[in-house]
């Protein structure tokens, strides 16, 4: 199989462009910003759920809203636990890699 040098050079340059990370000013969202947004959304869900439950305990919120808030909070916690498990699993996989 004979590959010309120019073809190999073109393919290499295309691979470099495909693997190049997108800068935040180009409209891409960095992983750190995505995790920060997810954490902020998680905390806001917990705060809103807690406020709704407290309002329900003193009679200012209907039971339907309390149940919905608890369900949203439970879903947020389950999602956070799943993300944590995946991060721990990835970290352990990295530790198992031979150096």
Describe this structure in words.
This protein is an all-alpha fold and 99 residues long. The protein has a domain at 28-96. Helices cover 77% and strands 0% of the residues. It is built from 3 helices and no strands. The chain has helices spanning 5-19, 31-57, 63-96. α2 (31-57) packs antiparallel against α3. It is elongated and about 75 Å long. The two termini are 33 Å apart. The mean pLDDT is 84.
- Strand-residue proportion: under 5%
- Let me know the largest β-sheet: none
Number of helices: 3
Arithmetic mean pLDDT: 84
Shape: elongated
Please provide the count of β strands: 0
Oligomer: single chain
Structural class: mainly alpha
Show unreliable segments. none
Secondary-structure element string:
HHH
Q: Alpha-carbon distance between the termini?
A: 33 Å
Radius of gyration: 24 Å
Helix content: over 70%
Q: Could you outline the blueprint of secondary structure elements for this entry?
A:
Elements: H1 5-19, H2 31-57, H3 63-96
Index terms:
99 residues, 0% strand, mainly alpha, elongated
Question: What's the quick description here?
Answer:
The chain is an all-alpha fold.
């Amino acid at each position: 199989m004979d590959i010309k040098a120019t073809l190999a050079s073109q393919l290499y340059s295309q691979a470099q462009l495909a693997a190049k990370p997108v800068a935040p000013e180009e409209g891409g969202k960095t992983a750190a910003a995505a995790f920060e947004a997810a954490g902020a959304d998680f905390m806001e869900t917990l705060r809103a759920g807690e406020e709704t439950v407290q309002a329900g305990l003193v009679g200012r919120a209907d039971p339907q809203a309390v149940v919905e808030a608890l369900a949203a909070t439970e879903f947020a916690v389950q999602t956070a636990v799943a993300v944590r498990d995946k991060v721990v699993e990835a970290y352990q996989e990295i530790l198992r890699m031979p150096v």
